[in-house]
Amino acid sequence: MSPPSPASRQTSTSANVSVLDLFPASFGPVLVVTKFSTEAEAIELANSSTFGLGAALFTNDAKQSARVPALIEAGTVWVNQYAILHSSVPFGGFKMSGIGRELGAAGVEEYTRKRDWGGVASRERSHPIQPRRSEGFG
Question: What is the model's pTM?
Fold first, then answer.
């Protein structure tokens, strides 16, 4: 779905507007700007979306920059920056913004298949995962 045309966009001063109301099903470089009166109202507005890949918080308040990211329902919350990723930090979304993680150890785990091989414990083995000669791995 393409973004609404400029003629169909409406300016709203109500904080009861969902992010989806402002830009439904958009993907790409989108900046949503709306008014809010309190920190709680801003967090509620940010969390009203059914998506949650990334969010950014810009503030001069050090306490706010430490407190608010934990309250925003997004896979990554940048503070006073945007879209900076490090290969050791997992990246992925919450809600309808994807399943799983990329990057970091969590990203590697997404490409592994974990399973338990339930063999019978035996005194013939010197180590629990060492197979008996007759078992092999083929």
Answer: 0.57
